Amino acid sequence: MHISWRKISRSPVVLLFSGLLIGMVFTTLVFIDNVSTAPSDPVFNMLSGSAGSSPAHANLASTTTSSSSAEMPKAASLSALLPRLEAKVVAEPDDANLQILLARTYLELDQKEKGKQLLDRVQQRFPQNQHLPFLQAKILMESVDTADLQKAVSLLEESVRRRPAAGHVARLYQGRTLIRLGKQQQAINLWRDYIATLPSDDQRRSLLEAELEKLANAS
Description:
- This protein is mainly α.
- The protein has helices spanning about 5-10, 10-35, 40-50, 75-90, 95-110, 110-125, 130-140, 145-160, 165-180, 185-195, 205-219.
């Protein structure tokens, strides 16, 4: 049986399908335009770990990619979104949290020199920012220089003071840095003392207890 494609192309079903397809494309374009111009941009909400707030008031409590429930997006996603975040920082130069978010993104993408330079500028303009000590320490922790590691330990102590709610993460890295400095017993004491301040059912205990168990098994 011969099929007439000309007749099919004129059928109501094909016309209806075409109309739906055009409508979907139009709706998508409108959505993309809204995302790029809306005051609360989902892109930056995702970067900051905030579900519904603008980046200027984002909750940046997450400081690691492995131990926090609000994880940073994967590197491929961050690379694609980085230019938009950089442009937003240029447009809003007085927003300290945006600059911290950009610095954190640089560190996640292993662009440490850019992250360090930006954090130095944040230090000059917003020296009391609560997220600053941890991110500065995160750079120094990877150094092989003893002075850098000692500075990281001090910065992590300051991070605990400025952000008590995230103190368990700072203590975790502080202990690891002390171990790199050859101060294993000091690290053990630090972790035990901090655990003692937490309730027995506090989930934050598990991070440090796991570190203590690893040390015990290694010895």
